[in-house]
Design brief:
The protein has three helices and no strands. With 98 residues, it is mainly α. The longest helix is centred in the C-terminal third of the chain and has 27 residues, at 71-97. The protein is globular.
Length: 98
């Protein structure tokens, strides 16, 4: 599914689905959460694109590695990386606001 001729078609539909999912997530979890001020200066469509592209490529990486890791582990990697990036953005915002 993630290789061959159908790969592009699958990724296009998958990313469209993820875009809606992460748009809903952004409204509830990113821009309404404590520390959201760090993201106010970043266009929402850029943030959504980051989440969608990162997750889609994580799935592609997982499939390309013969699905050796459990899917839950791949999600754990993805979430840990994004949480780390969020903490760094919050720290940078704190320093630039003072």
């Amino acid at each position: 599914m993630l290789s061959g001729e159908s790969s592009d078609l699958f990724m296009r539909y998958f990313k469209a689905y993820l875009e809606q999912l992460f748009t809903d997530y952004a409204a509830c979890e990113i821009y309404a959460a404590p520390g959201a001020a760090a993201f106010v200066s970043i266009p929402e469509d850029f943030v959504i694109n980051h989440y969608v592209s990162g997750f889609a490529e994580a799935v592609k990486w997982w499939a390309g590695s013969a699905m050796k890791a459990a899917p839950e582990k791949v999600v754990e990697y993805y979430m840990a990386l994004n949480q780390s990036l969020r903490r760094e953005a919050e720290k940078s915002h704190q320093f630039s606001s003072t």
